[in-house]
Every structure is written in structure tokens, then in C-alpha cells.
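Lab notebook page, bench 4
Experiment: in silico fold of construct C2
Operator: M.H.
Input chain length: 284 residues
Purpose: comparison with the prior construct
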Amino acid sequence: MAAAGAGGLPSAGAGGTSGAAGASQALAGSGGSVAGSGAGGAGGSAAGMSGSGGMSAGAGAGAGGSAGSAGSPNAVNTVPTDYKGTPFSALMIPGRINAADYDRGGAGVAWCHDMGNCTANIVTGDYPGASGVYRPAMPTTAKICGGAACDDNVGVCRMSTSKPDNTINGAAMPATDTYLCYSTAGEWTKYTVTVAAAGTYSVEGVMAVPMNGAVNLSFGNGITTGDLKLAITPTANSGSGENYHSWDDRKGLATVTFPAPGKYLMTLTQVGRFNADNFTFTKM
């Protein structure tokens, strides 16, 4: 499995501390694979790999960027030519994609919180005050930056001991994990990803799910998980009284098949609202 352990949860008593918090600000630009250069680098194949706890937000993303497939004669670029978003991190499949690492581009381009008004009713209250900013203001080099879109925030929160944010078995979630929160049904976020090789990949996800949670991961050209109903995350053994803060690693959610390596645009749609931490893709 690429990025072994990247999608896993900390075990009860392991402490769940993440290995690399610094990668949370890995911006596109160092990740040559996203640009399609195919430049090799030891870091690329480990995109999304955490240092020790397996759950650090953004760990490994953006450094090295070895998507050798991008230089393959069979590589494709299926990202729509009129798409104005740009990568926030170098995201690889196989590997882990952090839900909070959606593309730059702003409301209506890379994300939409509310279908009636993409920037309406955004809440980021569950974010410890001492935590650093995960998504700083959009750089002046971004293709779109105007008004509220410059905040580049669809609604992100960070794990907190005050909730507490625990696994369903009671282990504390890594304090550096940043996730999509206070979402609405229909909310979507987009991610530019590089697929290393054609084939079928299994999908797992770390999430906290209330009643009626559901998700869809689509990559264009009919490549999709379809709408997936998500079972509630139980709270009986988590130490948290809320489904939204009781986290589970859902393996075998679905499979997706890519006909060729190259660049794809993934759209994560919250068909039914839930808190999304990350999704891991493993070659079968």
C-alpha cells in the first residue's frame, strides 16, 4: 500500500501524535508532478505519508512531487481547460488526500459551501486559538482573488481536546489534523490530483458522521464512486458525546478505476453533511 498507515487512526493509548505538522502549508509549486513535468523525487511517492501517527494533516504533500506518470506517453490531463483553480498541495494517487487541501481558486471555483450562496454561513469555530493558520490568504499569483474568496475557506476546523475529538475507540485524534466542518448537504470541494498508474484503486476515508451522511468522489469522464451512504460514527466508546467528533477510519468505501495515468480533477461532494478528514487511495 502506498503511504502505508497514512489513512489510519491512532490506536487507543498510542497518543495519535502526528509526525509532520509542518507540511500543512505545503503549497503548489514545489510539487512538480502537479504541473505534469514528471520530475522524479523521493518525496512524491510518499505524498500524504505521516511521520509516525499516520494522521498528520497535509504531511508529505508538496515536497518532491515525483509523479513519473506525468511524463509517460500514455499520461492524460483531464482537468477542464476552463478550470481556474490551482493546487494547494501536490496530491497523489495512490496516497492520502486531506479534505482540507482543496485547490486554490476561491468560492464558485474550487469550493462552494452553500448552494444558494457559496460563501454564506461559513463557520470555523472549532479551531483552537493557538493553532497556526492552515490556509493563509490566497497569494497574489492566484488566478482568482476577490472579496471573500481571498479568505479561501470553505469551513475548516482542527482537532481539539476540548470536544474531545477522539476515535470511536477513545484514542485522541492528532492535534494537527485539519478537516472540513460545519458543512451543508451539497457542499463541494475540488482537488487537482496526479494518478501514478492506470488501474483500480480502493478508497478509504477518515470521517465523523451524523445521521444521513453521504459522499461522492468524482473525477470526470464517468470515473466516480457514486453516492455513498455513510453509517453514523458511534459515540459509546469515543468519550465524545457528538457524532461530529467521534472519528472512524472507513476502509473499503468504494473503488475507482482510472484508464490512464495523469492529472484529474477530483470533486468531493457532501451529498449528506459530515466531517471529512482524509481519503486514501490504494492500488489493488
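Observations: The chain has a mean pLDDT of 78. The chain has one domain: 27-283.
Next step: discuss at group meeting.
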